User: Fold this.
Amino acid sequence: MANNTPEVKAHAVDMNGIQVESPIDLYIYVIDMNDNRPEFHNQVYNGSVPEGSKPGTHVMRVTAHDADDDTTANGIVQYRILSETPHNPSHMFTINRETGDIVTVAAGLDRENKPTLNNWSPTEPKPRYLCTDTGNGPHADLLTGL
Assistant:
């Protein structure tokens, strides 16, 4: 039996307290509560992609962990890109919501026009990535690009 599963022995008794059957094992399963938020493994992720890459080219993977039971919705982590920098209405990248893999979705990435994805200026918001668990009352962690 797992160390965190309490084990209890029980038996039936009659009205006088005399045991009327052999003891049986009772197993008490403690159900995970969604009391942890997922956290990105790193505060900074660096990815690169050659200019002119075809859509579907792998750029990098972001990863997070949730201390809740990963066999339940409470501990299953999903990913989203909240914003990109520089801002582009026809997104340049997408993220696999289960794996955290970031790939290109647009052709025409040009280093001379956009030397870095984080070519950030104070007039533009920084890129933001979100991981959430899928439990009831989900928890989240936010990663902001530098």
